[in-house]
Amino acid sequence: MQAPSSTRNDVAGQLMIAEYERSSEFCNHVDNVRNVVTSFFLTLVGAAGFFVDRYSSAELRSGPLGSAAARVVGVLALVWLLGLLFIMTIARLRRVQLERYRR
Fold first, then answer.
1. Where are the transmembrane segments (predicted)?
2. Residue 101's pLDDT is what?
3. Tens digit of each residue's pLDDT (9 = 90 or more) over 45-88
4. Phi and psi (nearest 5°) for 65?
5. Is 61 in contact with 68 (CB distance < 8 Å)?
6. Of 68, 70, 72, 100, which residue has the fewest beta carbons closer than 10 angstroms?
């Protein structure tokens, strides 16, 4: 028969190992979400760069959506707004991740 203190130590050790495994899974999940968000935003930045290139080479013409300059400004404003939201999302994910490790 084991002493009660050694049984408590075994249970505490098992709980610590389980908590470490869950924290590792959570950390990997947050990192994957951050990578997906970053990749999506980089794709948007590439599209904005394409529009700026077309506008600067005068290949972008006025159309039913307005002048070429207005469309480029609209695309850049949209990318800026989405970038701000993505940065705030990534910062929030990082804060949640750090709070989880502090516990």
1. 32-52, 72-93
2. 66
3. 888 888 787 777 777 677 776 777 777 788 888 888 888 888 88
4. -90, 5
5. yes
6. 70
Distance between CA 103 and CA 97 in Å, rounded? 11
75, two tokens: 């695309």
Which of the four pLDDT bands, split at 50, 70 and 90, describes residue 4? Answer: low
What does R_g of the chain's alpha carbons equal in angstroms? Answer: 25
**Residue pair 75/51 in contact by the 8 Å Cβ criterion:** yes
Place of tokens 């804060």: 95
